[in-house]
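help with these tokens:
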Amino acid sequence: MVNKSCYYIVNGITLYRLMMVPVLIGMVFMYQVDLFKWLLAISFFSDLIDGWLARRYHATSIIGAKLDSAADDLTFVAGIVAVVVLKPEFLKQQAVFVIILVALFLTQTALAIFRYQKITSFHTWLAKCAALMQGTFLILLFFLPRPVELIFYIAFTATAADLLEEIVLVVLLPEWKANVKGLYWVLKKH
């Protein structure tokens, strides 16, 4: 049984994250780094909250999963825009790793659109781990004077593993599914 008030709260938090994306990008181009870093941290933290609330109170839905995926991706895009604009030297230093992630992401997205005519919303455990590491890295990148390269490499590894897992899931799953735990659980069912 879905708790309707919690359902609205969860989707409201997700909508907040979606609405914050243009605000975050605007802050970047206005070089309002102090405000940007706090709003980015709130957006990443609210992602943890809405996911936990949705699972805890059984307030999940296909629409909610799609909104959450869009909010996740767009918040991450806002973080990447900030890296490009505010930390270009770090981006140049890590260009090979960034290119690998972009190639994996584009491959996964293209396969999903070809196979399902829409992007995925798998929300695997690996994706959650990768998102946590990405958020941690991006927040620390703007709060600390120097990038924490170890966290960047951990985030890169988790993200690459997640994207590879999602590519395999797109190939294996004949129909679009939301909230798939991961490859292990898919293979276990078959």
